[in-house]
What does this fold into?
Amino acid sequence: MRTSAPWSSICFVVSVFAAPSVNTFETSSFAAHDVITRDFVIVGGGAAGTYAAVALKDEGKSFVVVEKTNRLGGHVATYQDPTTGASVDYGVQIYDNDTIVRNFFERLNTPLAQFDMANFGSPIYADFKTGNLLNLTTGSLGQDYLEELTEYSYLNDGIDLPDPVPEDLLLPWVDYIAKHNLEDSAMATLARPAIPGNLLDIPALYVFNDLNDLMLHEENGGAVVNGKRDNSQLYRNALAELKSNVLLNSTVIAGDRGSNHRQGVRLVVQTPTGKKLILAKQLLVAIPQTIQNMKTFGLDNREKGILSQIYGLPYYGGVVKNTGLASGFSYKNYAANNTYNIAEIPSVVEFNPSPVDEHLYYWYNSAKPVSQKRIEADARNAIKTLQKLTGAATQPEPQFVAFTDFGPFHLAAEVDDIRNGFYRDAYALQGHRNTWYIGTLFVTGSSQVWNNTAIMLPDILAAAH
Ligand SMILES: Cc1cc2nc3c(=O)[nH]c(=O)nc-3n(C[C@H](O)[C@H](O)[C@H](O)COP(=O)(O)OP(=O)(O)OC[C@H]3O[C@@H](n4cnc5c(N)ncnc54)[C@H](O)[C@@H]3O)c2cc1C
It folds into this structure.
């Protein structure tokens, strides 16, 4: 899946690992007000980074969050209709109704409400390419899948694999289905939006890691959502509280981390008001931990070896209005003649209803990066096809009002790397050079991300003593 020309690899190695100059991290190279000294530095202000910041504040610790965009929330994406002020969530949709979710929302004074899965709309299955309606049902997960899931409890809240890694877990999902006679549940296991890449080829371990007990609980009445159907409210409230300790529109441009806890962490961060030097005892990495994202953190050879095995896939989402399509339906892209009717990518996954009249949100799946222009053109063509297919009363021109690039999404490693101990090595990296990896390296859903961060917190706090 990782492809690049040999010359580009050479340039990459040279530029990525070029050493910073000797005085890069000297406090004397910075004005006093540009030196930020804290117990912790958290890089990334999505679900994991924001949760960690609030937890550390509540422990009485000092911290600073470095976030590259102009807001907190990461994969939570909310469009605010300028006329009505109503919201359309087109990233993270729902949460599991469990203790960690309820406590975190309460802590940030954000209301939660029960979510009725019927709000996702009645499905209409159509081939967006050929313009045919399909008479399909994806069904629900049966006993066959649930029995398999119980075999792999170590995938429920992480990817803590046995050694050797069971070969079945490395099978492409379509082969696992065939080998374990999961035909009854096959379509339901594949009817997962917000999963990037080719669903049939995903190694089985990632299916069990994502489609786990928490997800089943959500689907069986245990889903909650922000009371105003505005999942960004949680993060606006967090930003209002943490503001003086958050650097927005900022990225790490150089890093140096000591080999023992006394040496701490030094990061140079580019902010809208110039370069800052951050001196901290420990670093929490809450961004996708790909080598491209981590190249400026002053990696040692062990870190380079492990992190260069991680890849994430593209995934996109947006909001479109003026579609002329009947409301209350989820228009899903399937293919008449493909295995399990899985649509080819790149393509729109589905258009879903939202609480705002005439506004649909959509997701777009691709194995390779695609431009916003191409995505919106594909979505427009799909809407035109659906207008004809469903006999829409009017056939207006769709208007695209929001767009987000969610990549690199669903961090993963190649099966050979997993077989050779990638996850064992990645777990062993926790705490190495005062650095902790929170976020979605080992889990996918928000509850899991928050649970894992909470579980790691005692070790992280102890390391800063
Ligand atoms: C379309 C979609 C729908 C989803 N739906 C759900 C759902 O309904 N329920 C659910 O539980 N989960 C859902 N998820 C999964 C969701 O990704 C996780 O729940 C959670 O958001 C992951 O948190 P995170 O902090 O690890 O990553 P993110 O939320 O992605 O946060 C990472 C943060 O790091 C920042 N960043 C990235 N690179 C840098 C850098 N170099 N320097 C500084 N900052 C950087 C980003 O801007 C971002 O703010 C969905 C994901 C997607 C994409």
